[in-house]
Amino acid sequence: MGFPSDFVWGAAAASYQIEGGAYEDGKGLSVWDMMCRQPDKIWEGNTGAVACDHYHRGREDARLMGELGLQAYRLSTCWPRVLPEGTGAVNPKGLAFYDELVDALLENGVQPWVTLFHWDYPYALFCRGGWLNRDSVDWFADYTGVIVDRLSDRVTHWMTQNEPQCYIGLGHQTGEHAPGLRLGFEEILLATHHSLLAHGKSVQVIRARAKTPPVVGAAPVGVVKMPATTLPEDVDAARTLMFSITGKDCWNNTWFADPVVLGNYPQDGLDLFAEEMPEIRDGDMATICQPLDFYGVNIYNGQVVRADQDGAAVVQGPDGPPLTTMTWRVSPESLYWGPRFLYERYKLPVVVTENGMANTDWVHLDGKVHDSQRIDFLTRYLRAYRRAIEDGVEGKGYFQWSIMDNFEWAHGYKQRFGLVYVDFATQQRIPKDSAYWYREVIASNGATIEQP
Ligand code: FCB
Predict the structure, then answer these.
(1) Of the N and C termini of the chain, which has fewer Cβ atoms inside 10 Å?
(2) What share of the chain is helix, strand, coil (3-state, %, to 5)?
(3) Residue 69 above 90 pLDDT?
(4) Do β-strands 302-307 and 313-315 pair in parallel, antiparallel, or remain unpaired?
(5) pLDDT tens digit string along 398-449?
(6) Is 229 left (phi over 0), alpha (psi -120 to 50) or beta?
(7) Active-site position among 19, 163, 333, 408
(8) Whether residue 317 has pLDDT greater than 90
(9) Bridge pairing between strands 395-401 and 350-354
(10) Count of CB atoms within 10 A of residue 111's CB?
(11) Domain spanning 8-449: which CATH class is it, in words?
(12) Which of 298, 300, 415, when mutated, tests ligand 1's pocket best, judged by the most ligand atoms within 8 Å of its CB?
């Protein structure tokens, strides 16, 4: 069987992580620009001010993507580049950048998949309360309209937001990410409710205004639990834990996805968060729950779970697990159980919108970047994903993170996730061994992952 014939093979990146051009052509500030000005927030004081200079190299990067055989590229648009104040006046040069990028991608046979928000929130709106302000819902809807009006004659695939668990959780609760706040849980739930409403309104705008029939999803974190064995009790324990809310934080699937797909907040969360719940107005849940065409999900790893004697879930990973340089566990089975459990619960076709690893990549003496670990990693994960598809999951696509090394948020340039190596001093791009390997995977529609 293998991957379906219409399976989409792509790679992803995000505006703040690659574009640079942070202070050019009328772009407004984002919360990440401001975060990077704070001492000690980012590794070695790195910033995204230049990043991969993609703002000036979009055309050549699109050509490289074409040469590497990508069928699709998941990009994000930078809200304050297009609307410097977050709302109101449009910055024509900012919009033109995305317009030209979309053209360049299409000329190179690469389908653009656009994420409207991948964390670079307009600083001007942050000063007006940001996600705590209910007006953020309309601000995001208006911004969606600007992008859709301009790009939807050519762009058909849309994701509203990337990983609300991270920009709310890391951005507003633990403070590691922009805007660097450490709010109480009431405010976390309020900001989350607004971000969910913003997602829903954004979907409405896309569907109402797109010039070509849109395919719409989102890209939340996949918090994945993998059963230790295939015994039914272990599978049940893993599934239950994967869809449970166990703490007053954002590391769960259901608080973010149940409202979006099922139209309600999960009961265990409502019970646990009873004291901190925000006001939910009439019609809110209906606004949040818009029909979606796919469940996009970012999966990097999962936790091993087994059932104890009473059937309760116990997280139990092996000692000394293989780790990436992020110290994330190498856990290929997460790309089996993640899509499988999500498909069972939400009944939407699945697209893996991010998956990959950071590695100790450098340019070898022969001038090439030999990243055999990444090839092994991706092979294992893709085999697991293929098995999920063979077992009935409607898996529609796969986006490797990332097309090129880039600014990895608080880790700065310490972590290299790319298929393409970037020398940040010269901006030279060098496709790694994994990029050529992935080109063969794509050309064979996944058949070559059989090879060791
Ligand atoms: C995800 C983010 C993406 C990148 C990868 C490594 O959480 O969506 O921007 O940082 O992790």
Answers:
(1) C
(2) 40, 15, 40
(3) yes
(4) antiparallel
(5) 999 999 999 999 999 999 999 999 999 999 999 999 999 999 999 999 999 9
(6) beta
(7) 163
(8) no
(9) parallel
(10) 18
(11) alpha beta
(12) 298
